[in-house]
Amino acid sequence: MAVPEFILRLRKHVGHELLWLTGVTGVVIDPHGRILLHRRASDGCWGTPGGILEPGEQPAAALAREVAEETGIHVVPERVACVHTEQPWTYENGDVVQILDIAFRCRPVGGELRADGDESLDVGWFAPDELPAMSEMVMRRIRHASHERGEAWFDSGTAAPGG
């Protein structure tokens, strides 16, 4: 996975220091209730597709672009499912990031399922009761996007209603 050019430019100034980034994630749910997942090339784990906003990009448009790039599926973001600040993360090279993630519930509208071979090693549709092992962070996004209540969950530091 290529590091975006704007991050490379920032790293020239801040070195490995913490960068605050905005991420977008798509919980894509098909008409049969299956969830679109990809196995990330970065760590081999299954998760929901997404990425980092480029400067000037709108979150929903960036999310639709990322899902199509990583999975081949075209989506329409329907609503914000949750907004959450993740814990700081240190990459193998020492770069530290912290991501404010905006997770969208999306519906597929076309495309052909395929792994891009760069960011995604594998892709697939999974029934909610047949999901592969995933981090609690990814499961939280799926839970909030799966609720039909239509309102977004914002982490206030307390337990979220309904999970």
TrEMBL record:
Keywords, alphabetical: Hydrolase
InterPro entries: Nudix_hydrolase, NUDIX_hydrolase-like_dom_sf, NUDIX_hydrolase_CS, NUDIX_hydrolase_dom
Source taxon at top rank: Bacteria
PROSITE patterns: NUDIX (PS51462), NUDIX_BOX (PS00893)
GO molecular function, one term: hydrolase activity
Positions of the Nudix hydrolase domain: 19-155
SUPFAM superfamilies on file: Nudix
PANTHER family: ADP-RIBOSE PYROPHOSPHATASE YJHB-RELATED (PTHR43046:SF16), GDP-MANNOSE MANNOSYL HYDROLASE (PTHR43046)
Family: Belongs to the Nudix hydrolase family.
Protein name: ADP-ribose pyrophosphatase YjhB (NUDIX family)
Organism from which the protein derives: Nocardiopsis mwathae
